[in-house]
What does this fold into?
Amino acid sequence: MRFHTRKWIKPEDLNPNNTLFGGRLLEWIDEESALYACIQLENYRVVTKYISEINFVSSAKQGEIIEIGIEVVKFGKSSLTLKCEVRNKMTRQTIIKVDKIVMVNLDENGNPKPHGKSKVEFVKDRLDD
It folds into this structure.
């Protein structure tokens, strides 16, 4: 799994227990999944269709640095299924795992649109030298 984004846990990210608020973490996961799907599918019109059961394994505290990892599970006709793990950057302790996030590629009218992709591509491979 590739870990793309790091977040520093700040006071505004905390819940009343002074640990990372789960809703904030889910917001970051949803955003990271959308960005990953947009880049893979080469389309800015991508939406979250489904997020599976979420497994909170441990918590994060103010001042800690977390990293969000995304991995492709499968390419559908108009969708991209991902999985996610968030961990503490320094200790590598898992904070949360999400087994299935389905992102859907849309056309300009908001309808599902086939993307024609079947494997992970890296932006550097799409650019001309």
